[in-house]
Amino acid sequence: MSNVNSELILYGGLALLIVSAVLILVFALLRKEFPYALREIPTFARMRRAIGLAIEDGSRVHFSIGRGGLNMPWSAAAFVGLATVRRVAELTSVSDRPSVVTSGDGALAVLSQDTLKASYVAAVAPERYDASTGRATGLTPFSYVAGAIPVMHDENISTNVIVGNFGLEVALLADAAERQDNFTMVASDNIPAQAVLFASGSNPLIGEELYAVGAYVQAGAVHNASLRVQDLLRWVFIVAVVVGALLKLVGIL
Amino acid sequence: MRIITTFFLAIIAIVSGVVVLLGYFLPGVPLFVTLRVAFLNWLMILAAVAVFVGIANLFSVHTQKLKNKKEAAYSVLLLVFLLGTFTLGLFQGPTSPAMDFVFLSIQIPVETSLMALLAVSLLYATIRLLRWRANFMSITFIITALIIFLGTAPLPFLGPVPFFSDWLRPIIAQVPAAAGARGILLGVALGTLMTGLRILFGADRPYGGK
Fold first, then answer.
1. CA of A234: which chain B residue's CA is closest?
2. H-run or E-run covering A186
3. Cα–Cα 20 to 30 A to A60, which of A9, A17, A41, A179?
4. Cβ–Cβ below 8 Å for A111 and B206
5. Which residues on neighbouring strands pair with residue A204, listed in sequence order?
């Protein structure tokens, strides 16, 4: 029985992967024929405005991309953070002060430097890249937060984008950012962290909204297509869960 | 030249990702399984090296901060303790009594006090929440938090609060909270899948490039 279950999970997972990949490709290719309107999330509108203001007044945008390692299931949240850095750093490359990225993992710090460099190259301003703007501020949850808070205080930050894998300690980071009266967007894939961010952040993203950041910062057609597939599959899952519960209720399952 | 490098980096990343996936989904093909294990072992080694690179980066940032006298004090402290702990670990080993002292008497108390600070910070944030978003969701959040708090923390001299600890808290935790958490977890799993696919397609390149 358990062998049958594990095979079902394996092949079910493979089928889900293939279907998702095909749908992303189809939606990305047919984006003009079937345009997809993103629903309005006020936090993203406020973030775009805050980034515009940061460029105008020459202040910095601070990204905190968490401590999700590369070999963990939660590294996806860190990759979302990096995709956000890639797009927003390119937009803010004309600002007087370059964006700064803090992370709680060595590999992420290296990737954040590489991403910042790629953003400046894309913005035809490679000379503006400074390796010290991609930093690992600590390698344990609280040391990371303790290292990131002074960056918010001392480096003329006006906008904080805190997106990645965080635990409860992120509340300290969000609180410090709010005390500076900066615009702060906060998102984590961790459920307890989402609960504390709902209370301590003025602009929290809840649930899977974290994975929509790329589409909302216009990181590319594939981001839009993948968000569309994500929404579609979510409805499939909802229907499957409800039908499964009903079948269980009537004794068929 | 840069375009060629970027292209090859993307090819390496995509092929590695596909091979690791095939190793998971086709356990009957020994080649993919062997390659998956080898790639994941390399990843472990690279991640360990990256930790060292991260520390070198931290060292470099704080060395630069020494030039600014206003910010120098904290950086001096960090560099002294970083080098001190590193030297201690290098010569006495990570399990020596001296290293134990550093962790048990400095690292753990400092992190525990930050955890205590977190509790105060959250209390303040909950009060502030009503100023930011005085809506139905915020009020529900605060009432639920209060119920769970009353049901979890025993009162002095009275012990567990009846009704809250034995009836209301278990119902809230096991029915609406568990259902909501599972819904969010499903969404997070789908988001993780989509992020992985974007990297496999080369649309997201966290290793630089596009």
1. B187
2. strand A183-188
3. A41
4. yes
5. A186
Q: What burial letters (b/e) apply to A101-119, b meaning 16+ CB within 10 Å?
A: bbbbbbbbbbbbbbbbbbb
| Cα A173 versus chain centre, distance | 16
Comparing B103 with A71, the larger pLDDT belongs to B103
Q: Is-contact A217 A88, C-beta < 8 A?
A: yes
The CA-based angle A154-A156-A158, given to 5 degrees, is 125
- Residue B170: how many CA atoms within 13 Å on its side-chain side? 6
State how far the alpha carbon of A154 is from the alpha carbons of A56, A60, A76, B110, in Å. Answer: 19, 11, 30, 22
Angle at B149 between CA B143 and CA B150, to 5 degrees: 90
Q: Which chain A residue's Cα is nearest to B204?
A: A83
Residues of A in contact with B25 (CB under 8 A): 10, 13-14, 17
Cβ distance A142 to B50 less than 8 Å, yes or no, reads no
pLDDT tens digits along B125-174: 888 888 888 889 999 999 999 999 889 888 887 788 888 988 999 999 99
A110, A139, A229, best to mutate vs chain B, most B CBs in 10 Å? A110
Which pLDDT value is given to residue B155? 81
Tell me which residue in A82, A198, A223 faces B206 most closely, judged by beta carbons. A82
| pLDDT at A208 (0 to 100) | 87
**CB-based contact A68:A78 (threshold 8 Å):** yes
> Looking at chain A from residue 38 to 57, which residues have their Cβ under 8 Å from any Cβ of chain B?
none
CB of A202 less than 8 A from some CB of B: yes
Q: What is the pTM of this model?
A: 0.89
**B61 contacts on A by Cβ (under 8 Å):** 132, 135
- d(CA A210, CA B30) in angstroms, rounded, equals 37
- Smallest CA–CA separation between A10 and chain B, in Å? 6
The beta strand positions in chain B, using DSSP E, are none
Contacts of A171 in chain B (CB under 8 A): 118, 121-122, 125
- Cα nearest neighbour of B129 on chain A: A199
State whether residue A74 is helix, strand or coil. coil
The pLDDT, as a whole number, for residue B8 is 87
Whether B3 shows a pLDDT value over 80: the answer reads no
- CA B167 to chain A, closest CA, distance in angstroms equals 23
Burial class (CB in 10 A: 0-12, 13-18, 19+), B163: exposed
Flag residues of chain A having pLDDT under 50.
Answer: none
Q: What is the ipTM of this complex?
A: 0.91
Kindly tell me the sign of the dihedral angle through the C-alpha atoms of B45, B50, B51, B56. positive
